[in-house]
Automatic annotation (TrEMBL):
Coiled coil (UniProt feature): none
Similarity comment text for this entry: Belongs to the dus family.
Cited CDD domains: DUS_like_FMN (cd02801)
Cofactor: FMN
Record Gene3D superfamilies: Aldolase class I, Putative flavin oxidoreducatase, domain 2
Domain DUS-like FMN-binding positions: 28-299
Pfam families to which the protein is assigned, alphabetical: Dus
Keywords for the protein's UniProt record, in alphabetical order: Flavoprotein, FMN, NADP, Oxidoreductase, RNA-binding, tRNA processing, tRNA-binding
This protein's name: tRNA-dihydrouridine synthase
Length: 338
């Protein structure tokens, strides 16, 4: 590990990705189906240093798929970091140009997603099995845009192929300006414990900033992953589900008071309905509602939770969430009153 990385930096201090300033060192991970625009807006409002879009399929963006365009939106978030996924250099480069033209400040290339649907198309973490091909995608993307390009990856495909340091060094040589490493292999998915020490080998291989990712829940975790990896910043993901303010809390910002959570959750719900439209929004919001209830209303009756999670009546859902998160073990349903 390089000598200047032996002492972890303070989480609240700014850093830069190329010429783009980032206000602190806690980054919200890109999570497909989770970090949509409403979630990112809340996380940034509560103090996250940087938020990243859900994975945007590059070819689908080029061919004007509605979902890809929805995921691309930044709505004033600054900086606006867009993660692109794909396997073909042409589509990644064209998608990067589109993203830049539509307000992206940073392009991130997904080489870390372990999902079967993604690796089945030989994208995401599957690219770590083909370093030469991965580098061709990186080179094409860097050449296509003027904004910084970054790469998010895992340690390797499996324990026998830990090649993140090699790929990171080659990516830096190709012009990439930041590397993020999740401390697991693809074959681990999210099982076991992320290996924070293994990320240090990537730190030794590159001079550009490094973000460490994996199993960060607390402020103590954030400081420890920086100490053990030598990274410049920390990425948090699943620990923010059901609490989009958590990234900011890790930096030192105040999260909502318990009495404020019901209103904030209803606001988030209404933001999703506006973003997706009522019909789609009701369905899309359910995973978030479940996380909120699990974290903040664990004593809610199973019947009440089921009523909330299955209802198509957005007014009922908003009222019921307000009741549940205010301490009620059950909820009064409009359907029952009828």
């Amino acid at each position: 590990m390089k000598d200047n990385q032996l002492v972890p930096v303070a989480l609240h201090t700014p850093f830069s990705i190329g010429s783009v300033p980032v206000r602190n060192r806690i980054v919200l991970a890109p999570m497909s189906g989770v970090t949509d625009l409403p979630f990112r807006q809340l996380a940034f409002r509560f103090g996250a240093g940087l938020v990243v879009t859900e994975m945007v399929a590059s070819r689908e963006l080029v061919f004007n798929a509605a979902e890809s365009w929805s995921r691309l939106k930044g709505a004033g978030l600054n900086p606006h970091m867009v993660q692109l996924a794909g396997r073909e250099a042409r589509w990644l480069a064209e998608a990067a140009v589109i993203a830049e033209a539509n307000g992206a400040d940073i392009i991130d290339i997904n080489m870390g997603c372990p999902a079967k649907k993604v690796i089945g198309g030989y994208a995401g973490s599957a690219l770590m099995r083909e370093p030469d091909h991965a580098l061709s995608l990186i080179e094409a993307t860097v050449k296509a845009v003027k904004i910084p390009v970054t790469v998010k990856m895992r340690l390797g495909w499996d324990e026998t192929s830990i090649n993140a340091p090699e790929i990171a060094a080659r990516a830096e040589a190709a012009g990439v300006q930041l590397i993020t490493v999740h401390g697991r292999t693809r074959m681990q998915f999210y099982e076991g414990k992320a290996d924070w020490d293994a990320i240090a080998a990537v730190r030794d291989a590159i001079r550009i900033p490094l973000i460490a990712n994996g199993d960060v829940e607390t402020v103590e975790d954030a400081h420890e992953i920086l100490r053990r990896s030598g990274a410049d910043a920390v990425m948090v993901g699943r620990s923010c589900q059901g609490r989009p303010w958590h990234a900011g809390v890790l930096v030192g910002h105040a999260g909502p008071q318990a009495s404020e959570i019901p209103g904030l959750v209803v606001e988030h719900y209404q933001m999703m309905l506006e973003h997706y439209g009522a019909d789609v929004g009701v369905r899309h919001a359910r995973k978030h509602l479940g996380w909120y209830l699990d974290r903040h209303s664990p004593d809610l009756t199973p019947q009440a939770k089921a009523a909330i999670m299955t209802s198509k009546d957005s007014d009922f859902v908003a009222d019921a969430m307000q009741q549940a998160l205010s301490g009620s073990r059950d909820v009064t349903t409009r359907q029952e009153a009828a």
